[in-house]
Amino acid sequence: MATLRCNVVTPTESVLDSEASYVEFPAWDGQKGVAPGAAPFLVRLGEGRLRIDRAGGSDSFLLDGGFAQMNGGTLTILADAVTPAGSLNAAAAEKELAEASADVTKRGTLEVRAAAEHRQRVAYARVALARSGRR
């Protein structure tokens, strides 16, 4: 089976460096799937589930922004933040979503509102991934 190299890094750590048969992640404008042989690209990341399919199964993570680059058979995910799906707690995620949703309704500057909407998108993705049970 053909594979691609997948590296997931944050500013503070290397999260994953492995062969993958398929990778799916949230780009700024929607979900993107990458298979071996994909053409080179550079894309800004959004918030949501990062899924990496490997020979031994799939790994899922909560991804919060950054960039993805495909070049020469290697996909590099340069993430602002990555959280393994197995470490997510559904009850805590639901509480975070409720708080973030309440913050969105408050008045403030455009920057304050944009930050609140970002927290809400991340919290929504956290709840969805925690509820899915995918590890």
Summarize the structure.
This protein folds into 2 domains: 4-85, F0F1 ATP synthase delta/epsilon subunit, N-terminal (ATP Synthase, domain 1), CATH 2.60.15; 88-132. The chain is of the alpha+beta class and 135 residues long.
Describe the 3D structure.
- The structure is a single chain.
- The chain has 135 residues and is an alpha+beta fold.
- It is globular and about 50 Å long.
- The mean pLDDT is 90.
- 28% of the residues lie in helices and 46% in strands.
- It contains two helices and eight strands, in the order E-E-E-E-E-E-E-E-H-H.
- Strands 1, 2, 3, 4, 5, 6, 7 and 8 form an eight-stranded mixed sheet that branches.
- The chain has helices at 90-104, 110-132; strands at residues 4-9, 14-20, 22-27, 30-34, 41-54, 57-71, 74-79, 82-84.
How do the helices and strands line up, and which of them pair or pack?
Elements: E1 4-9, E2 14-20, E3 22-27, E4 30-34, E5 41-54, E6 57-71, E7 74-79, E8 82-84, H1 90-104, H2 110-132
Parallel strand pairs: 1-7
Antiparallel strand pairs: 1-2, 3-4, 3-5, 5-6, 6-7, 6-8
- The quaternary structure here is single chain
CATH topology of the largest domain: ATP Synthase, domain 1
Report the C-alpha radius of gyration, rounded. Answer: 16 Å
Provide the helix percentage: 25-40%
Find the CATH superfamily of the largest domain.
F0F1 ATP synthase delta/epsilon subunit, N-terminal
Distance between the termini: 23 Å
Helix/strand/pairing class, anyone? Answer: alpha+beta
Total DSSP E strands = 8
Number of helical segments with 4 or more residues? 2
Q: Could you say which overall geometry the principal axes of the C-alpha atoms support? A: globular
Mean pLDDT, to the nearest integer, reads: 90
Low-confidence stretches at least 5 residues in length (pLDDT < 50)?
A: none
Q: Give the H and E element order.
A: EEEEEEEEHH
Strand content: over 45%
